[in-house]
Amino acid sequence: MKKWLLAAGLGLAMVTSAQAADKIAIVNMGNLFQQVAQKTGVSATLENEFKGRAGELQGMENDLQAKMQRLQRDGSTMKASERSKMEKDVMAQRQTFSQKAQAFEQDRQRRSNEERGKLVTRIQSAVKAVAADQSIDLVVDANAVAYNSKDVKDITADVLKQVK
Hints:
Blueprint: H1 2-21, E1 24-27, H2 29-40, H3 42-74, H4 80-133, E2 138-141, E3 153-154, H5 156-163
Parallel strand pairs: 1-2, 1-3
Helix pairs in contact: 2-4, 2-5, 3-4, 4-5
């Protein structure tokens, strides 16, 4: 009798796990993120947004390098006062450039994170919608799974269509 109950319990557990496997799907979040970012043109938007500041920084860097080369090349033949003045000017310009470059990088990173957050939110909404439409109980990132059988459904393409 105990063996029969044990066999019935194991059989029920196997049926339950097989049914649960039907409601699990995977999605390749990295691939989705890349494709959605390309479709929406996030990179181009950010590049255009920061184009002016990047150009200004490039000009400052070129000017600073030219002054440093002139100081290095002509420094030994300059008057001490002239050389000292130029060195102070180069140091001040280097500090200004460094501060502006750091602020630029922080602003660019902040905006990049904002845009990335918007994309992630859109993708997550699409994943939820597809999962609800297809009665899927669990969706797992394909990159976080060590192994999945062919029976596990990949909904990446469906989610990509939904994101539009």
